[in-house]
Specification:
Elements lengths: L1 H23 L3 H5 L9 H20 L6 H7 L14 H24 L8 E3 L9 E3 H25 L17
Length: 177
Amino acid sequence: MKKIFVNFAKYNQEADEKIISILGKMENAERVKNRKSYYKSLAGLVSHIAGGTSYMLSLAAQAVSGNAEAQKALAPLKKIELPQGGIDEEGWKKILSAVKTADKAYTAFAEALRDEDFSALVKLDWYGGKPAAVPLYFMLQSIETHGTHHRGQISQILDELKIDNDYSGINAKFLKA
């Protein structure tokens, strides 16, 4: 099971790097333009991906409190600072830093997990308390699904803008994990 989640984490990191590369070539006005998505802009979507990943990983931390290596992997999440309000160039730099930090922490966390960690319960603060907790593997699946969903939204917007953007599929190089 560990290999699957390490592969997912590495895929997320690679896909996010490709998105950042594409969006980094755009003028900030284009990145922050309201594209009618739930998070409005391309920059808003990327910020939400970073925030969601770091938030879900922070919930997962308590489930593996006895795994010192996993805790160490997640420590950098505490330094993430996402922009509040409008996103200017400085805000974009904060988003880039947050994405890189969250993705690196996610990969290191997945690599630090032990077999028994995957069934550890993660306490939730959503679903109205039903369930109040889920197994760690479910939380990790949720991180993967969340990022893929929002990268799909970004891809659709980029397609409409006729900007080439292929970051789908898990790279076979991750089989070495």
